[in-house]
Design brief:
Layout: E1 6-16, E2 28-34, E3 37-40, E4 51-60, E5 67-73, E6 81-88, H1 91-98, E7 108-113, E8 125-130, E9 133-141, E10 149-157
Antiparallel strand pairs: 1-4, 1-10, 2-3, 2-5, 5-6, 7-8, 8-9, 9-10
Pfam families: C2
Keywords: Abscisic acid signaling pathway, Calcium, Cell membrane, GTPase activation, Lipid-binding, Membrane, Metal-binding, Nucleus
Subcellular location: Cell membrane; Nucleus
Length: 165
């Protein structure tokens, strides 16, 4: 607990135009990994545009570690098929959290992270102040697959007793 900075809630909102890995569709789920932490969404059956709205929470001790996503097609009798992967970092998000913002109108865009060759962003990713919280909305383009994006929303959670930001 003494090394913990806080928690990162990742809301895995939806997949967009994911690859078909079964006859006509896929049964996708997402695995989120950071360091030795590994979390998984539920499986959405027969859907290449799944809506998960699953909230996954990572403990953050080192905000410089990348967060990795892997998307799979759930299969019953054979190993699950890969449907792409993506990676992002929270460095800029964490910098905004450390600003300890207050008294700012809800909906204010603090900064934007632009897509580049070092991230998997499909478009600009705004970091905003919403209802007294720092929020980042992002669309990640999946790699190592013919198509697909994942929409996420990040939210920081302070923990009483942690070393904090």
């Amino acid at each position: 607990m003494e090394n913990l900075l806080g928690l990162l809630r990742i809301n895995v909102l939806r997949g967009i135009n994911l690859a078909k890995r079964d006859a006509r569709s896929s049964d996708p789920y997402v695995i989120v990994m950071m360091g030795n932490q590994k979390l998984k969404t539920r499986v959405v059956k027969k859907n290449v545009n799944p809506e998960w709205n699953d909230e996954l929470t990572l403990s953050i001790a080192d905000p410089n570690l990348p967060i990795k996503l892997q998307v799979y097609d759930s299969d019953t009798f054979t190993p699950d098929d890969k449907m792409g992967d993506a990676e992002f970092d929270i460095k800029r998000f964490f910098e905004v959290v450390r600003m300890r913002l207050q008294n700012i109108p809800s909906g204010t865009v603090i900064t934007k992270v632009k897509p580049n060759c070092e991230n998997c962003l499909a478009e600009e990713s705004p970091i905003t102040w919403e209802n007294h919280q720092v929020i980042q909305q992002m669309f990640l383009r999946l790699r190592n697959v013919e198509c697909g994006k994942i929409e996420l929303q990040l939210q920081w959670i302070d923990i009483p007793g942690s070393r904090g930001v």
